[in-house]
Amino acid sequence: MSITPTVKAILANYESDNPGVKTNLARILMQGRLGGTGKLIILPVDQGFEHGPARSFSVNPDAYDPHYHYQLAIDAGLSAYAAPLGPLEAGAATFAGQIPTILKVNSSNSWATSIDQAVTGTVDDALRLGCAAIGFTIYPGSDNIFEMMEEIREMSAEAKAVGIATVIWSYPRGGNLSKDGELALDVGAYAAHMATLLGAHIIKVKLPSANIEQKEAKAMYEGSDWSAQADRVRHVVQSCFAGRRIVVFSGGAAKGADAVYQDARDIRDGGGNGSIIGRNTFQRPRDEALAMLDKLVGIYKGED
Amino acid sequence: MSITPTVKAILANYESDNPGVKTNLARILMQGRLGGTGKLIILPVDQGFEHGPARSFSVNPDAYDPHYHYQLAIDAGLSAYAAPLGPLEAGAATFAGQIPTILKVNSSNSWATSIDQAVTGTVDDALRLGCAAIGFTIYPGSDNIFEMMEEIREMSAEAKAVGIATVIWSYPRGGNLSKDGELALDVGAYAAHMATLLGAHIIKVKLPSANIEQKEAKAMYEGSDWSAQADRVRHVVQSCFAGRRIVVFSGGAAKGADAVYQDARDIRDGGGNGSIIGRNTFQRPRDEALAMLDKLVGIYKGED
Amino acid sequence: MSITPTVKAILANYESDNPGVKTNLARILMQGRLGGTGKLIILPVDQGFEHGPARSFSVNPDAYDPHYHYQLAIDAGLSAYAAPLGPLEAGAATFAGQIPTILKVNSSNSWATSIDQAVTGTVDDALRLGCAAIGFTIYPGSDNIFEMMEEIREMSAEAKAVGIATVIWSYPRGGNLSKDGELALDVGAYAAHMATLLGAHIIKVKLPSANIEQKEAKAMYEGSDWSAQADRVRHVVQSCFAGRRIVVFSGGAAKGADAVYQDARDIRDGGGNGSIIGRNTFQRPRDEALAMLDKLVGIYKGED
Amino acid sequence: MSITPTVKAILANYESDNPGVKTNLARILMQGRLGGTGKLIILPVDQGFEHGPARSFSVNPDAYDPHYHYQLAIDAGLSAYAAPLGPLEAGAATFAGQIPTILKVNSSNSWATSIDQAVTGTVDDALRLGCAAIGFTIYPGSDNIFEMMEEIREMSAEAKAVGIATVIWSYPRGGNLSKDGELALDVGAYAAHMATLLGAHIIKVKLPSANIEQKEAKAMYEGSDWSAQADRVRHVVQSCFAGRRIVVFSGGAAKGADAVYQDARDIRDGGGNGSIIGRNTFQRPRDEALAMLDKLVGIYKGED
Amino acid sequence: MSITPTVKAILANYESDNPGVKTNLARILMQGRLGGTGKLIILPVDQGFEHGPARSFSVNPDAYDPHYHYQLAIDAGLSAYAAPLGPLEAGAATFAGQIPTILKVNSSNSWATSIDQAVTGTVDDALRLGCAAIGFTIYPGSDNIFEMMEEIREMSAEAKAVGIATVIWSYPRGGNLSKDGELALDVGAYAAHMATLLGAHIIKVKLPSANIEQKEAKAMYEGSDWSAQADRVRHVVQSCFAGRRIVVFSGGAAKGADAVYQDARDIRDGGGNGSIIGRNTFQRPRDEALAMLDKLVGIYKGED
């Protein structure tokens, strides 16, 4: 499988990385139906940690089985499958070599009493499970952000040395941020930028609203029209080294299919690299999920 | 890319290996034009170490450039490319993600005064260069065989822990073995068996002759007709845990194309998994080499 | 399954060992049809390393498959199965929990030019493969004996710390020992004693002849009648801390069934703990092998 | 490039440092248009971490790209470029060997709920990225100052052993310090002194006001006229081992060009070694920034 | 100092190396009067080890002082200075930052009783002394070549991780090589190739004669005219990954100035990257040496 010029150009931006990391990034970028386009769709299934099994899977009970998600990601032609340690251990041998996996190495849960996550996986786990990348969540704004940053700094250095890529989920939360502010444009761009500064290869953030949260930042956003989501995406991508890093956006809570499609079009039109889409797929019946993912692939290919 | 039942069955034989190793074996087995068939062709380019650059490359000067071999292996749709440290360092970024690589971690040369090799690469090198496997030569029969076995035991254990597969080149040589004996059937089967006992995932041996070298073994081979090469291949495969391990055969010195094709047919008919074919390809002009490899792929696919 | 008083008494002799080692010794002693009797039969399959595959398996080709030996040992109700790394890797998952395994961690071969073995497995391998013990060969008398002793000292210490038992194969060979002397009574007793002194939990030696090899030892053996094999066994057992250590005897090359049975009766009557019996079983057709092992079990149970 | 006597004299003050550290200090002091003068201008771009991307770069959108800053520093003939991990990873290969870099190894952000920073880079990162120095911020006065000091003590020791220089940003903040007090002369001199005591090779502080914050220190400053900024600079330099350490001053928030020039003249006249100037350059259009830096170089050369 | 396109193109060939290594290679390639041309002249002073002080320095007693050589290399505008541990320790602080240094980490001497070298420096030494590279000699052909290769494999891996480049001196010697054969074209090309395969960044060999030493290689060289030294250089460069690696040639024993100049022209015309020239300079009076080096610089610049 020859790398496309588009993917070659993306890989060239990771100029300090060893060929091992580039190989794993290439595996993700050349995988599935979007392989070679520079776009990607990742299936993340860590909602069991975040919200518990019933809230995550009872609407589609097949999804209690980790194999279900592997198979869904493969059958839909997605780029990668991301999950915590347990689910990858439960399927990594069966699906070895079929889809790149991302080991989510920290996790929170609904009952957490601090805005933080536990480190629940390691780079050694990623190696023995054949993963292409580790995934790590930071909560900029929280009281624990410095510690979280130090955790990923250490894990990411270890991962880079052994050829494993790093994906950072950057979710502003806690501290003085308002609830609305977590999704504000300035906040989202800043959160994405911090992940980039920390050395992430792939940055994962939420689609931002048109709100501006920070008083000191209002001036910089005034005078521009931020009502179009594609423009907001473009600003986030710009905030990730002017497009030198891969940026993917999460779909958030399950919602109507049309909204999901419009999000993807906006990500595409704003220059984002793709979607991390979990609940909106595995909480639908498999046929519907496959149809939705098929349509999303089409959108990222520019066919829709 | 879904694993085929054939490849799934092969992977199932590696029942003690972690998913990382299985993932890398799957990458090799699903790569290129033979992907999914359970057959494989590997391009090895360590002849520069063994015989020097002029004897290896002067007949086809483009082959002095390590990129040439990467591109040849990719364009021919091969399963993997094997080389020492230097050539992989010289191309691993350019060709990241395009073909699985095998880091040859020990090497000899024409001027060696002992039957041994130097360890010239490490598992860490394999990780940073994004390799799927390490390759190691043992010389059963030589005075240094115990030390060589201990070297690969250590490196292989390290590799298995981090999801890197192990290929052992098993070449009888030295000690009390006669020159003819190095290629004898009983010797080749024994050498292959030793590599298997050492825990190799892929065993690489030479195609054996019909000679029987060991006095004590003659009785076991008498009464059978070993004149057909396919039968000899079958015996070597049997000696590798009755087919539970992947066995590939080397073509030896450059020779006529028809002989190369017949070798491949015999390997295929005897149940071997494929060829490691170096000099017979890169010492031909690229067009001829591609034509030859195309024909070999066809043979392994059973079309010829 | 409750430990029998007989086994409890044996375990009590290992008074410095941690409960992990005792647990693994108990697993062997409580396994199979001899479970609880204090007697044991171990199936060792490392002849492929020692003599090559054809000399080992061609007489019974099913035996090329490592699974064959696992199944034979299980179906015959034996106490443990011993083999090098490769064969255990090839079956350890399939047969997990069905029979205790002993990882043979060093190995020689027919072409060796020194009286030595290569270390081909590790305690880490034993742990990841779920083995109950490691097995190690020493060649008292050889030029390499000190190095071999140091190797097992190191590995055994590591094994004991993690609850893995140690079996030492003690085979006098090389140096100034005559060929006949290798089997002499004084030599066999001395070799067994050295293994015991090295801290082996289980000592494995050959059945000794009535010869006395060492000039200096002749006086001590004169005046006694050593013509009965059971008496010679008793002397070897006595040399292993007066029965405080488990001693098993090998049957040597394949031979007539009656000779095998008589050996077992002598081992039993001389107070030996059992047999390690390889070629005499797997080189027979499976039915014959099972019948022979059934009879041996009966002998050790005192029924024959 | 021969070291000038001025630079030689500066290097001689670092009498306990190994030649590796001296080499890296020399690289900074011999670089660019001020090379050899003993003066230096460093471009620091960590404002993205501190204030977010929009507040840092939206006024000059080219500056979203990390390459922009490398190129600006090179084209302006500056002495070094300082940034966090991500931006250096994004440009270190492209600009290898063109300008000394300083890896900022800790970072805060606008949403921090404590006066502290996260350690976001390591000495190993500095080595693999070819950096001349690490940069570290301490907040004397904050509740976390002891921990911050211990972090830099550890990193600095590691850096010194491998020939990497240490730059400490010393910013009084938190605890009982008043907001005005953070810039007070006594406080700035004390903060600079603490960095010096911690073993920094280069000390970076803010230009102090004429305020005196500490009751206990007022007596020592009374009777002198501190209205001239150059005198205040001289006092800070004096506080850094009487000029035995390199001291550079930050320009603070973006402001009028004339103020920037006057600051530089005062730093020069007070015996300071130069400026760390970020926002005042990259937040201006590139042409204006180059013109400003050209003028600053002239000032430090005594031509203006 | 902006990298020239020529140097950028050379650096791009080191595609697996981290920016630290690239930075140090760039430092060498941008240093001195040949900076930016892709050509380089290195001053090596390890003859004291090889031949003793009197044979090395008595003809020009100033050269007993290590500072003499630093100053000579700087004043002549050379690219780098290479020496063992002691001389670099004696001058690294005085000349910090003035010229890239190469720590020769192994050394032989006139009284050696084996064809081998002692490892006399480490990567840690290179870091604390501010060196750009380590230098290591291998003796292909010698009985100790495998051990030497294993030494540099280990040191080079360590060096690459911390951004230090590797120079390999490859000198065929010992074993079955004839004395004339050491300089034979086929032997020199093979030796250079081995250094390249081992992962050297810079390969240093002797200028080869037109002899062909190896029987098996004669056919490959027949039919071409190897009488022109430039053609022989071209073949050696070709043997180093077709020009993807920097190759420099040593001048050998002190000889007439015209011969030295002609060598340089041939190196240049054959596509070599430059000279390592020791005895031919420091064994001449300083003025003569500077004049000679000036002329050599001119030759490499194509002016002569």
UniProtKB/TrEMBL annotation, chains A, B, C, D, E:
* Short name of any one Pfam family annotated for the protein: DeoC
What GO biological process terms are annotated to this protein in UniProt? Answer: glycolytic process
- Keywords on this record? Lyase, Schiff base
> Which GO MF terms does the UniProt record name?
fructose-bisphosphate aldolase activity
Task: Cite the InterPro entries for this sequence.
Answer: Aldolase_TIM, DeoC/FbaB/LacD_aldolase, DeoC/FbaB_aldolase, FbaB-like
Location of the active site: Y171 (proton donor), K204 (schiff-base intermediate with dihydroxyacetone-p)
Q: Which Gene3D superfamilies match?
A: Aldolase class I
The reply on keyword Ribonucleoprotein is: no
What's the Enzyme Commission number for this chain? 4.1.2.13
Q: What class of enzyme is it?
A: lyase
- From what superkingdom does this record's organism come? Bacteria
Name the family: Belongs to the DeoC/FbaB aldolase family. FbaB subfamily.
Identify this protein by name. fructose-bisphosphate aldolase
